[in-house]
Write a structure and sequence with these properties.
The complex is a heterodimer of chains A (354) and B (200).
Chain A: E1 25-34, H1 47-62, E2 70-74, H2 80-88, H3 94-98, E3 104-108, E4 113-117, E5 123-130, H4 134-149, E6 156-157, E7 161-162, E8 174-181, H5 183-187, H6 191-200, E9 203-206, E10 219-224, H7 232-261, H8 263-279, H9 285-300, H10 309-318, H11 321-327, H12 334-348
Chain B: E1 7-13, E2 21-25, E3 47-53, E4 56-62, H1 64-69, H2 80-89, H3 92-98, H4 108-114, H5 122-125, H6 127-137, H7 150-155, H8 159-178, H9 182-199
Parallel strand pairs in B: 1-3
Antiparallel strand pairs in B: 1-2, 3-4
Classes of the chains: A alpha+beta (354), B alpha+beta (200).
Chain lengths: 354, 200
């Protein structure tokens, strides 16, 4: 059974690398924003109301029939390091991790479902799956929404659909978000074109941890910005049939060009990455992500053998600050953390030939 | 005084949604035609603003100069949009900024700072200002065309409104009880009961 204690050893389902197109698409995510009709939105909810919202939703969430055990984490009782760990696993947002007050998250045993309580909206239902599986995420989130709605009254208007604290989420309350690894587009300088095209299509491109974060390790989250006026299926289909296939194709083409035209440059990057990861004694999180990104590209293009993508994905997660600290179960200052990160990666990358 | 150069606008409250303004130019029938002097300088007033709010009517009469100094430009035969614009750029801009939701206390100004609304009712209270804002943010989307909660499908389109009314009245009921206004409390209790019976 999943607990906060054993979570670092638990491999997130979405990192498993068994989803379609996992060489480029790390994970797919569908999020539904919902609010209880009987309470004000978070900006105007009193502490007492926030507690009432959380206890109501907690009870409902733990009542959802699920195959395995499940976890509800109250933020107030959770240490900073565990909050950061949940964020690194994409189970909670930065906002939920950093804010005080009555907030929590429900997590299914396989970590494919997380429901944030009292984030920007009362409920944020989130389904996350490995690879390109947008429809499957939707089906999961939709089912949970139905189960919750059987006992709860969500704020809804016929004209504006589901009502949310921010009017940018009204209507479906649906945000589709696909995390892609785009090192070749970055390397060939085409990423800016993709960013522009995305902007023209009213899509948001964000970094590894969503809003306001940088694209460390060449990971990009692509998501829709409009939620009103189109049905869920229209939004989902635009993503799975147009948006993502196009970006996927662009990344594949860029990879093919690198292999065909500048293999030496490509191999130099991969070799340097392995060199640093296998030999460095001090590594910042940012530097580790930078090199792991080229290692991931090398593995995906089969220029490195003996290491699989799931292993690299795991290293991405476990070399991040909170995970590192939890795995080694001791608080660390900056220098010992850098040393611990370098030691960890050195130890995990003894195998593999290039 | 003849009826000329009148830029006149009425802010009329929608019956169902107090605080939700319907902007329309006042017709001549709305105007009494009596000679009036400017509320500020006593010169003949040529700009008239009538505001009906919560059953009380507030009228403002200004001369052209005072109206202009308030940012309100008098125009002959004001069209609908001109009169609306006059309201939005004129002295009422300030009032719109301070428009407050009676349920949660959110003002339009506060929303613009936060980017977040305070409660479901804000969507009605700020409907006029939010409309264009939403349309821009949603790339032209104005109407929901997706999933509808099952309870709503079962219970008809008024279901949400009725549930919201109950929630609101329960808050008022608690207030009435703590204010020892038992007559009001009894009225509210009966209203809540009636709606609950209807939708159960």
């Amino acid at each position: 059974m999943l607990t906060l204690e054993n979570m670092p050893d638990h491999l997130c389902q979405w990192l498993a690398c068994n989803g379609p197109r996992h060489d480029v698409v790390v994970s797919s995510r569908v999020r539904l924003a919902r609010n209880l009709m009987a309470f004000p939105f978070m900006t105007k909810a009193s502490d007492v109301q926030r507690d009432q919202i959380q206890s109501t939703l907690r009870r409902q969430l733990l009542g959802i029939p699920a195959a395995n055990g499940q976890l509800y984490v109250e933020m107030a009782a959770t240490s900073d390091i565990d909050r950061q760990m949940l964020m690194e696993r994409h189970l909670i947002s930065r906002q939920l991790a950093s804010a005080d007050g009555s907030k929590g998250v429900f997590i299914s045993d396989d970590e494919t479902l997380s429901v944030m309580v009292n984030e920007e909206d009362h409920l944020r239902i989130q389904s996350i799956q490995p690879g390109l599986q947008i429809q499957s995420c939707w089906l999961h989130a939709d089912k949970i929404d139905d189960q919750l709605e059987a006992n709860l009254d969500f704020a809804f208007s016929d004209k504006l659909g589901y009502l949310t604290a921010c009017p940018t989420n009204i209507g479906t309350g649906l945000r589709v978000s696909v995390m892609m690894h785009l090192p070749a587009l970055q390397l060939t300088g085409k990423i800016d074109q993709i960013k522009q095209a995305a902007k023209d299509m009213r899509l948001a491109i964000r970094g590894l941890y969503g809003e306001g974060t940088e694209a460390f390790g060449d990971f990009y989250q692509i998501s829709n910005q409009t939620t009103l006026g189109r049905s869920e299926q229209e939004i989902l289909e635009e993503f799975s049939e147009q948006v993502i296939p196009r970006i996927l194709e662009a990344e594949e083409n860029a990879r093919a060009i690198l292999v065909a035209e500048t293999p030496m440059v490509l191999d130099d990057r991969i070799g340097r990455a392995l060199g640093v990861l296998r030999n460095a004694r001090l590594l910042t999180a940012e530097e580790a992500l930078f090199h792991l990104s080229f290692l991931r590209l090398g593995v995906a293009l089969k220029r490195v053998s003996g290491i699989d993508l799931a292993h690299v994905n795991k290293l991405f997660l476990l070399s991040q600050t909170a995970h590192l600290q939890r795995t080694l179960s001791k608080p660390m200052d900056e220098i010992t953390r850098k040393a611990a990160r370098a030691d960890f990666l050195r130890e995990k990358l003894t195998g593999g030939t290039f | 005084m003849g009826v000329k150069n009148h830029a006149v606008a009425t802010r009329r409250l929608l019956g169902q949604a107090p605080g939700c303004y319907d902007l329309r130019p006042i017709s001549m029938a709305d105007f009494t035609g009596d000679d009036m002097s400017c509320d500020r300088c006593k010169k003949p007033a040529t700009v008239h603003i009538k505001e009906i709010s919560g059953g009380s009517v507030r009228e403002l009469h200004l001369c052209e100069q005072c109206a202009a100094s308030q940012g309100m430009v008098a125009q002959k035969h004001a069209t609908f949009f001109e009169s609306v614009n006059a309201l939005i750029v004129g002295p009422h801009a300030e009032e719109l900024q301070n428009l407050r939701c009676p349920d949660c206390g959110m003002t339009w100004r506060e929303f613009k700072d936060l980017g977040l609304l305070g409660c479901v009712r804000d969507y009605e209270i700020f409907a006029v200002q939010l409309g264009p804002w939403i349309q821009t943010a949603q790339a032209g989307g104005t109407h929901h065309s997706g999933k509808t909660p099952n309870a709503r499908q079962r219970n008809g389109p008024d279901y949400g409104r009725q549930k919201a009314d109950i929630a609101r009245m329960k808050v008022e009921l608690a207030r009435a009880v703590s204010d020892e206004d038992y007559r009001q409390a009894a009225e509210l209790r009966d209203k809540i009961k009636a709606i609950e019976e209807k939708i159960s």
